[in-house]
């Protein structure tokens, strides 16, 4: 089992990433950290195999965390996940020996591809005593990844969309109203409705009118995957 430490100062983003990781066979979330100092302490305490590291942290940058880890002799594997797109950040990450640099926003498939490639890379490194150039080239290609990030509509954050998607899938065929989705996710009602309607637009959910005792119709959203498995 590959132990993963998630470092992100946004609680909701960390929660979504933890859900992504936990859904993958062979991975488990061993901890989370919301600051650079906490990340350094948790790496030392938990000894994770992989750190998912944000750049923007409240006390120091993730790149400073990376520098301190390497200066302290830590060989923990690191994948940077950040909205930082400047060349200096990317160069510093490369110098720190990160396996990949995943730019926010991204979709779940890109995230899962990176982690699956990482798991394959670990397995191959454990099985190979020596490697010829073709194997070396292939393993370096696996560490960098190749899947492009899919764009999302303006105002729709992929991490939040995934949170709403998983919440909707979790309630089954009964579905959710925007108000119920708001209560379960912590989003404002208007935001919950916008994300639910985005899932409808992507043909991942259906919406129907349901009339209550007061006669006022209520829009209820259901996941198509839940309907198919019911």
Structure overview:
This protein has ten helices and eight strands. It is α/β, with parallel strands linked by helices. It folds into two domains: 2-144, Response regulator (Rossmann fold); 158-229, Orthogonal Bundle (Arc Repressor Mutant, subunit A). The strands form two sheets. A five-stranded parallel sheet has the order 2-1-3-4-5, sandwiched between helices. It has a three-stranded antiparallel sheet with strand order 6-8-7. Helix 7 (158-170) packs across helix 9 (189-201). The two termini are 31 Å apart. The model is unreliable at 146-150 (pLDDT under 50).
Task: Produce a short descriptive summary.
With 230 residues, the chain is α/β, with parallel strands linked by helices. Helix content is 50%, strand content 19%.
User: Under CATH, the topology of the largest domain is which?
Assistant: Rossmann fold
Distance between the termini: 31 Å
The poorly predicted ranges are 146-150
Q: Judging from the principal axes of the Cα atoms, what is the shape?
A: elongated
Rg estimate, integer Å: 20 Å
By helix and strand content, what is the structural category? alpha/beta
Would you tell me the overall average pLDDT? 83
Side by side, the strands of the main sheet go 2-1-3-4-5
CATH class placement of the largest domain: Alpha Beta
What tags apply to this protein structure?
230 residues; alpha/beta; Rossmann fold; Arc Repressor Mutant, subunit A; 2 domains; five-stranded parallel beta sheet; three-stranded antiparallel beta sheet; 10 helices; 19% strand; elongated
């Amino acid at each position: 089992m590959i132990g993963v430490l998630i470092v992100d100062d946004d609680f909701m983003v960390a929660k979504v990433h933890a859900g992504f990781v936990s859904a993958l066979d062979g991975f488990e979330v061993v901890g989370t950290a919301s600051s650079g100092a906490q990340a350094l302490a948790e790496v030392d305490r938990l000894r994770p195999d992989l750190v998912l590291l944000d750049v923007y942290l409240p006390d120091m940058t993730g790149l400073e965390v990376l520098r301190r880890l390497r200066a302290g002799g830590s060989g923990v594997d690191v994948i940077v996940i950040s909205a930082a797109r400047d060349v200096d950040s990317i160069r510093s990450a490369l110098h720190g020996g990160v396996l990949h640099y995943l730019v926010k926003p991204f979709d779940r498939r890109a995230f899962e591809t990176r982690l699956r490639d990482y798991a394959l890379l670990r397995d191959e490194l454990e099985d190979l005593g020596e490697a010829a150039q073709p194997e070396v080239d292939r393993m370096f290609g696996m560490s960098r990844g190749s899947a492009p990030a899919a764009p999302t509509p303006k105002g729709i954050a992929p991490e939040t969309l995934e949170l709403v998607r998983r919440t909707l899938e979790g309630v089954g065929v009964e579905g959710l109203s925007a108000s119920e989705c708001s209560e379960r996710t912590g989003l404002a009602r208007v935001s919950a409705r916008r994300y639910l309607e985005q899932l409808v637009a992507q043909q991942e959910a259906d919406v129907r009118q349901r009339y209550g005792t007061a006669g006022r119709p209520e829009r209820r959203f259901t996941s198509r995957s839940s309907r198919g498995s019911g």
